[in-house]
């Protein structure tokens, strides 16, 4: 049951983040993608979208950290 809730909540947050991206609300989008990723850490696409939103917001150091984390997780998953 918890797994279903996590998937559902993560999808909801990702949809809200997508909408924030469309409105150029970069910081809000990054926060929402982060929350969605925390629920579904296997969804590296959410981490990448968070990094993209941070980049658009001008948060270059945070973008670099997020990208590095995403790459490291992908390599460890192999």
Structural features, described:
- The chain is mainly α and 78 residues long.
- The protein has helices at 2-22, 26-39, 44-56, 60-77.
- Helix 1 packs antiparallel against helix 2, helix 2 runs antiparallel to helix 3 (44-56) and helix 3 runs antiparallel to helix 4.
- The model has no long low-confidence stretch (mean pLDDT 87).
Sum up the structure in keywords.
78 residues; mainly alpha; 85% helix; flat
Number of strands: 0
Portion in beta strands: under 5%
Instruction: Count helical runs.
Output: 4
Terminal Cα separation, in Å? 28 Å
Report the helical percentage. Answer: over 70%
Shape: flat
As residue ranges, the low-confidence spans are none
Largest sheet: none
H/E series = HHHH
Mean pLDDT: 87
Derived from helix and strand composition plus strand pairing, the structural class reads: mainly alpha
**Rg, nearest Å:** 12 Å
Please give the structural blueprint.
Elements: H1 2-22, H2 26-39, H3 44-56, H4 60-77
Helix pairs in contact: 1-2, 2-3, 3-4
In short:
This protein is mainly alpha-helical and about 80 residues long.
């Amino acid at each position: 049951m918890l797994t279903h809730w996590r998937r559902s909540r993560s999808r909801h947050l990702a949809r809200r983040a997508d909408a924030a991206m469309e409105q150029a609300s970069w910081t809000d989008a990054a926060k929402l993608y982060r929350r969605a990723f925390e629920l579904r850490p296997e969804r590296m696409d959410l981490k990448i979208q968070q990094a993209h939103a941070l980049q658009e917001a001008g948060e270059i150091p945070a973008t670099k950290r997020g990208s590095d984390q995403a790459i490291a997780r992908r390599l460890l998953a192999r």
